[in-house]
Amino acid sequence: MARVVAVSNRVADPRKAAAGGLAVALGETLNATGGLWMGWSGKIVEGAEGGRPGEGELKVQQAGNVTLATLDLSREDHDTYYLGYANRVLWPVFHYRLDLADFNTAYLAGYRRVNQLFARQLLPLLKPDDLVWVHDYHLIPLAAELRKLGCNNRIGFFLHIPLPPPLILAALPGHEWLVGALFAYDVVGFQSEADAQHFSRYVQSEAHAEVVGPDLYRAFGRTVLARSFPIGIDVDEFAALTHGKEARETYETMREQYSKRQLLVGIDRLDYSKGLPHRIRAFQELLASYPESRRSATLIQIASPTREDVDAYMDIRRELEHLCGQINGDYGELDWMPVRYIHRTLARKRLPGLCRAARVALVTPLRDGMNLVAKEYIAAQDPGDPGVLVLSRFAGAAEQLREALLVNPYDTQGTARAIHQALNMPLEERQARHQALLHRIRTHDVHWWRRSFLEALEHVDAAARQRAA
Ligand code: ADQ
After folding, report:
1. Radius of gyration for the alpha carbons in the chain, expressed in angstroms and rounded
2. If you placed Cys at 138, which of 9, 218, 280, 430 could pair as Cys (CB 3.0 to 4.6 Å)?
3. In this structure, are 218 and 282 located in the same domain?
4. Which spans of this chain does the record mark as coiled coil (predicted)?
């Protein structure tokens, strides 16, 4: 295979286990092809007068067979591109939260500037046959910027978050420009069928795109292959972690502590898209409607700190803390607290232990591109005595994980009923559902995802590209 060049907002050293499944999976391909990974270093350089540092500060280092190329950002670029356009505009709009979007024009200017900077820095590193794979909403216009500089490589883009329906997307000022920029790619990948359909409907109605073949759209003088490539996890890597020392320790401690109780778990970033307050209210409803669950059902909610410089994230944190305090005050006993809320990132090596010890996992986002926690929970279970996944129908994962108990997180009573059903599900039914789910996440794991995307990119119709050139 040709050399693969990955570009994402942040890069991770693929050799470090803590980097997680995506880094490991990408790392494998990058390593095999002697590839390159470019992104922001995570460092902010304060200019003398808040100005931007000069260019040419790309830091290049080797991680095994992989070249890592990282760029520092100026304070202004970081605040407008990353905190601004990516996290205050695209993230809320793409998660259907127009009410939380802040359409400040300085953000868009910063977003364009940083994408231009990435393009200028990346171009000299590219060889003509490289396959370039750009990741996520931070870098949508990158291919368009590279094309302007004369780049003719095959370039693919994968959107890790949802793409909203046309009328929500159309509320974004400059949406025509943003979606138009996707046509500079050869392949555009989405997490779910629903997202791919939103793209199809949008480009046909707003950009008068022509459908020129299966999943092939032509507009702006270019042809793009756009379809879903649902991301998976590295099931074997996760299974190995599950049997590691730290995970076993966590599992045994939890089993011991909760031997007479029913343990439920929630593991998320503290993001408003994850539906945490809705989840706590559904759990409260469980305690109110099913008295037998009192003194028994215990929810451990791990919510890791994230994007705390953005107001909406401080608001959701306060709301969650208030709700957890309320439910513990109303229902808690001297020897039992219904919710244990932990505002921290759980060490990756311990995560499978907690998953395995929990009878039920609550994965109930209001909107989510995929949600890998749902898949990790399945991978961590003991097939002989598996737990039950309660999953929001609005997570991309719900398209694949049909044997989970699917819920509408806005329906508090309905979700409480599903949690009750999960807690009382007979062993044979748990086993049958788990077996089907495990099969699905195994056949569609992260390696399948990476291979199918890169194969699509490698085999993109050369004739169509010629016509476009
Ligand atoms: P995220 O929104 O970050 O990712 P998710 O897929 O749920 O969401 O989690 C990514 C990883 O973070 C998982 O490996 C998970 O275990 C870990 N994680 C989450 N919360 C944690 C916590 N409190 N402690 C420790 N680890 C935690 C985006 C999209 C998703 C999409 C992924 C991958 O929003 O929809 O599934 O990218 O494409």
Report:
1. 23
2. 9
3. no
4. none
- The answer to whether residues 189 and 290 belong to one domain is no
460 burial type by CB count under 10 A (0-12 exposed, 13-18 middle, 19+ buried) = buried
- Give yes or no for residue 351 CB within 6 A of ligand 1: yes
CA dist., res. 232 & res. 118, Å (int)? 28
pLDDT on residue 309: 86
In tens, the pLDDT along 183-219 reads: 999 999 999 999 999 999 999 999 999 999 999 999 9
Residues 274 and 287 in one domain: yes
Q: Express each pLDDT in 364-385 by its tens digit.
A: 999 999 999 999 999 999 999 9
C-alpha 267 – ligand 1 centre gap (Å) = 9
Residues 176 and 308 in one domain: no
Domain count, the chain: 2
Regarding whether 242 and 183 lie in a shared domain, the answer is no
Return the structure tokens found at 365. 């986002």
195-to-156, 188, 343 alpha-carbon distances in Å: 17, 11, 31
Q: What is the CATH number of the domain that holds 73?
A: 3.40.50.2000
Q: How far is the CA of 368 from the centre of ligand 1 (A)?
A: 10
Using DSSP, state whether 49 is helix, strand or coil: coil
Q: How far is the CA of 38 from the centre of ligand 1 (A)?
A: 21
Residue range(s) defining the domain that contains residue 390: 235-443
309-312-316 Cα angle (round to 5): 110
Nearest Cα residue to atom 10 of ligand 1: 372
Q: Is the dihedral of CA 76, 82, 87, 89 positive or negative?
A: positive
**If you search the block for the tokens 């997180």, which residue do you land on?**
409
Residues noted as catalytic: 160, 368
Q: How many whole angstroms separate alpha carbon 63 and alpha carbon 349?
A: 22
CA 108 vs CA 175, 406, 420: distances in Å: 11, 37, 46
